[in-house]
Amino acid sequence: MPSARFEACLLEKKTLIDTWLERLMPGPEEEPAILHQSMRYSVFAGGKRLRPVLALAAYEICGGRGEAIYPVACGLELMHTYSLIHDDLPCMDDDDLRRGQPTNHKVYGEAMAVLAGDALLTLAFECFLGRGTDGSVSQETLGLLARRIASAAGSVGLVGGQAMDVNRFSQDRRLETLVSTCRLKTGRLIQVALECGAIIAGAGDEVLNVFSRYGRALGLAFQITDDILNVMGDAKTMGKAVHSDASLDKVTFPELLGVDRARSYARQQVDETKSALSPLGGAAWFLTELAGQLLERQA
Amino acid sequence: MPSARFEACLLEKKTLIDTWLERLMPGPEEEPAILHQSMRYSVFAGGKRLRPVLALAAYEICGGRGEAIYPVACGLELMHTYSLIHDDLPCMDDDDLRRGQPTNHKVYGEAMAVLAGDALLTLAFECFLGRGTDGSVSQETLGLLARRIASAAGSVGLVGGQAMDVNRFSQDRRLETLVSTCRLKTGRLIQVALECGAIIAGAGDEVLNVFSRYGRALGLAFQITDDILNVMGDAKTMGKAVHSDASLDKVTFPELLGVDRARSYARQQVDETKSALSPLGGAAWFLTELAGQLLERQA
Description:
Chain A has 299 residues and is an all-alpha fold. Chain A is built from 15 helices and two strands. The two termini of chain A are 14 Å apart.
């Protein structure tokens, strides 16, 4: 069970992130209204806000105060949302449900879903580059950050991982290949979220390395538990179809390792997150508990 | 007929742009190879390179020398290419041919086409933000430029125009609506290409306004002639399906105005480009001739 302190801290972060997302997104009446409604539909469909929460946590641990982190953190959530919308399309994973609600293309049609994803990706860069900023971070730092994020999100990052996933039939079924697909698809954006928080707070390379190592292990742990939930989970709690990986003939951790060994592999990654954080001592309690919670999550 | 000087100057620009695109893009063997091949397929399918040519021309007119403009100019071409790939998808315009060759999804499948578009958009931002740069432009200027481009490319720019196009059945059939769709869909990226050239060359607001006005009229002239070619053109010369607008029930300039009045409307816009350029005198000869060529183009 998460501690009360953890739950309060998580809720506070998520509330602030939602307030900022509302501030940064075009309103539902703004033209072209149907596009903006489609974008908002997926952004406000109740995500876990994992990436912006990580960015905020790293920022605070590094002594960051003030609001400079929010537009960047929210940009990461917009980026994550775009990738989900495109990933759910009929030509990709063909999912009808996401977070308990019909997927974007089920509501707005495929064309608008493609465009909503495109517009969210573009809006994410506006946020990284100063939309909604209080001006306390230099344009130079924002530019360097945005470039780092672009590299983590592109053809040798997030999109590259998706491409390997789509192209899975020509891949071998080795753990190594699965780990590297997962590092691209999930790991790099999680890692860069933490790095963003640290960089905006002005942290040095040593602390940056702590977060990189933590993020690397966390991303892997997250994907493994996601795969296990897809096999073992309950569709109602998950808010999306379960067993969908098997029907798409996806290579997953439980399929390669069996559920028990996959669980212990995830536990190993969570241990690695804890070792990674040790130089930060008690200041990192929130991130330590967050990683531990992964093993217990039901959705 | 274009002058020999114009043709030589255009060819020189296009050759340099192609060299830089090759330098900026991941190689076809780099993993994930199939994704990189899909991206390269559309980028090197023989486009007119209009946007980067405009950026280069504006840069030179403003006294810009050196190579600082190339990564930004090429980023604009990557952005244009992503929008074409997504626009051709079955759920959008469902086009089988583009520039005389099968469209991206016909060769690589829909999923890879969606991802190639996503990766090109992301790579475009890497280019705007310093990929391949010689370091002569400050990170601050690059960041501000990238933000300006993001705004022109997003939900109240390029993607917004596409959304209005997709959603055309609920639109009125007024010239005003068509003009504003076209300004978003085509105009803003053309305008921002010229502005990029001027800004990187260090031009002031007065010159910037000249290019904004020129780009605004040029974008409109370009779209009108595109529509006319879709009605009157020859599929072989065009390298793509003609009469496709009518079969999609698209509102176009020739349909609203008739071909003759559409032609004279395009001519009017070309005249406007010339007035816009007049403060620059002879230095702007290339842009003047380029606008005039639009009226004669066959593809």
